Amino acid sequence: MRKIKSLAILTGLVISHMAVGQETSDNGMNPLSLRPIHESNVAYKVGLWRRVDLREKQNQPLFANNNEITKYLVEGVKSGILDAYSDDNLEERLTLDEFNERMFKRFEGGGLSQDELDAGFGTEETTSDDGWGETTSGGTDDGWGEETTTEDNSQNGTVTTTSTQAPADGYEMFANEFYLLELKEDWIFDRQRSRQYFDIQTISIKIPAEASNDGLEKNLATFKYKDLEHFFRNNPNAVWYNEANTAKHINLADAFELRLFHGRIVKKSNSLNRYLDEQYKSPKEALNKSQELEYELIEFEHNLWEF
């Protein structure tokens, strides 16, 4: 009876899937899939977004000291090997200047803009008599990023000193400051092989709220997983750090293939495109729902073949 019920649910899902459609190319394949499944064989599909906190113990092998996955992604963009996109819609590709601007962390307070410096803000003038009736002029660096200029006023016997703050107001963030990833993947049931697949579509680097210039969590860049898989395979140094046996580190591409990470579900595809914490009243309730979704996906596959 349970099997019949599960098959009835699956039939309804197939009809719904055929009506809505999915992102495919002209040949019926998803162009973002590493191992695409033809749309005629997709019996069930749901989009999942997972939050991967690289500080968690299970995820630390992806974030080993000086071997962070974010380090390789940033280097790939700066070297021109990887294409970075604004978000997981993949509609806007970032230029190198735009990517660097997103990585730039401004000091608290933001400093002064170039227009403000040109207008004279941040410039302090002091006037003093040197006591000798002599005049000097010139500029020196005081060692703190400020330039001090002494101006001679021979007619009134005074010396004017001008101090201008250097325009630098921040720094480019380090790769180990980006400890949040967001995976977008499809949970697919393949009717031909009679099994489920997790099909990763994109991986995004998030700027944590405490590191963001405005105190909000933002997207640094999004990458096609197909590009990353090829990039990792061709980079032997990009490894999942094996603490148990340092002679057997694993390439990052294999680590994702083997699901050697923990990513909490933060969004399931829905008509309003809302995250779980936007749908529920409290973070605790959203966390409980995330765990429920994990169990539901496991139970769904199990019940299809239960007699």
From TrEMBL:
The keyword Mitochondrion does not apply. It comes from the Bacteria. Keywords: Signal. Residues 1-21 form the signal peptide. Residues 153-165 have a biased composition (Polar residues). Residues 114-165 are annotated as: Disordered. This is Gliding motility protein GldN. It comes from Arcticibacterium luteifluviistationis. The lineage of its organism: Bacteria, Pseudomonadati, Bacteroidota, Cytophagia, Cytophagales.
